[in-house]
Amino acid sequence: MSTAAETTIAAPRSTRVDAKYTRDKGKKGNFEMFAWLFMRVSGVILVVLVFGHLFSNLMLGEGIHGVDFGFVAGKWADPIWMFWDLVMLWLAMLHGANGVRTIINDYAQRDGVRFWLSMILYVATAAIIILGTLVIFTFEPCMVDATGQLLSGTPAFCAG
User: Fold this and answer.
1) What are the structural domain ranges in the chain?
2) For residue range 44-80, what is the model confidence (pLDDT) as tens digits?
3) Which of 12, 53, 79, 106 has the most CB atoms around it within 10 Å of its CB?
4) What is the pTM of this model?
5) Does the keyword Metal-binding apply (predicted)?
6) Alpha helix (H) ranges present in 1-150?
7) What fold does the segment set 26-143 form as a domain?
8) Kindly report the CA angle at 122 between 117 and 127, in degrees rounded to 5?
């Protein structure tokens, strides 16, 4: 025979009720559903992008010894590789930020801490996406000096 003390569940540490744990189908519930779906879809796409990236960089040509400034410049001379790396950057950053956002929501107990951790995450994610996008689109492999002469170390395809 059991006693009442054995069947009683202790009160939770927090009285905060998350909208994502309720049966309410409001905006928060829809956002969490789309975030969950995004993680699955972006994960599959990222596997293809990353393995394609690794294969082209490491298995084709000279392998790891051939990866240098000229190699990157040659790849980014092709708009397909620029797009490939851009999509990989955006998806990786958004996928990772969504995962960290979930961890923050699960483990940060105080609302203020959760808010500031989320703000730091969003600012860092936006900064890396913006800077990475600028690097991809403004990359200039054929650098010249003030006289218009190509700098030393410039890739061979710039001379032609």
Assistant:
1) 26-143
2) 999 999 999 999 888 887 888 888 877 888 888 889 9
3) 53
4) 0.73
5) yes
6) 4-7, 27-54, 69-76, 79-107, 111-138
7) 3 helical TM bundles of succinate and fumarate reductases (1.20.1300)
8) 125
